Amino acid sequence: MTKQFAVIGNPIEQSRSPELHHAFAAKTGVDLNYKKILAPLDGFETTTKTFFSQGGIGMNVTVPFKEQAFTLCDQLTERAKIAKAVNTLWMQDGTLYGDNTDGQGLVAAIQALGWNLENSRILILGAGGATRGVIYPLVQAGAKKIVIANRTLARAEQLVNDLKDAVVQAELSAIGLEQLSGEFDLAINATSASLTGDALQLPENLIFHHAYEMAYGKPSSFLDQAQARQVPSTDGFGMLVGQAIEAFYIWNAVKPELKDFL
Ligand code: NDP
User: Fold this and answer.
1) Same-domain check for residues 233 and 139
2) Which pTM was predicted?
3) For the chain, which terminal residue's Cβ has fewer other Cβ atoms within 10 angstroms, N or C?
4) For the segment 52-100, what is each residue's pLDDT rounded down to a tens digit?
5) Do 57 and 23 share a structural domain?
């Protein structure tokens, strides 16, 4: 029987998840259908419950419902608990499970580029949901120092406070965007500035050797500045594929190869 999957969000038209999951299915021989569901802003829970009551197997969750998905689950993986956000749901024997595969998706994409994370010093711009989801997987992959720089300093400080006990192997700290300086192996743009078309100004005394922009398909002043400095750089498409592969693996117990879909 064809297995039913979906991605839920609002808006949802832009999502590339159906095309990715159908490509994984074609490659691995899994019989599935994966659709987009637009949920009303106040209708996430009802729409999700209807999907699973009609035999849905698994669901991806995107903006703005990842925190609500976290509160809806009966069981959570360790990384979802730490992220306090869920992007992958599945139902098993009446229990709703939740995971967060965004961080592992980012780690897999960085490793596929051959960029080293072992003992790395990482700067993350932004302190929203995406940053929260990637810190634990980055530390598990070997990051030793992570500085979170945010326009609203208090939000970065809160994030560091929430996460520091979960990632004791690494040094975590928070700064304001105007305090940017120092040297990093990798700078990650996890602000939504590229989505709104806003420019991020990186000072000359900030040095970084690789640059990862989480957004994709949009002009990015962060990537422009990395390219002007001749630093290896990429947009977030690999992360998107990586998180989708992790979800596919949870649901279907087969793991497509990232390099086949980049
Ligand atoms: P949130 O809305 O949770 O957080 C947005 C962050 O961006 C905040 O830290 C905010 O700062 C900062 N910000 C917004 N506008 C500006 C600006 N003009 N200048 C400086 N800082 C700004 O978003 P998410 O964390 O969910 O997503 C962040 C990015 O990551 C988005 O581009 C999203 O598309 C991308 N993403 C990509 C994924 C992928 O698979 N490739 C997966 C998940 C996310 P403040 O706190 O001060 O408001």
Assistant:
1) yes
2) 0.95
3) N
4) 999 999 999 999 999 999 999 999 999 999 999 999 999 999 999 999 9
5) yes
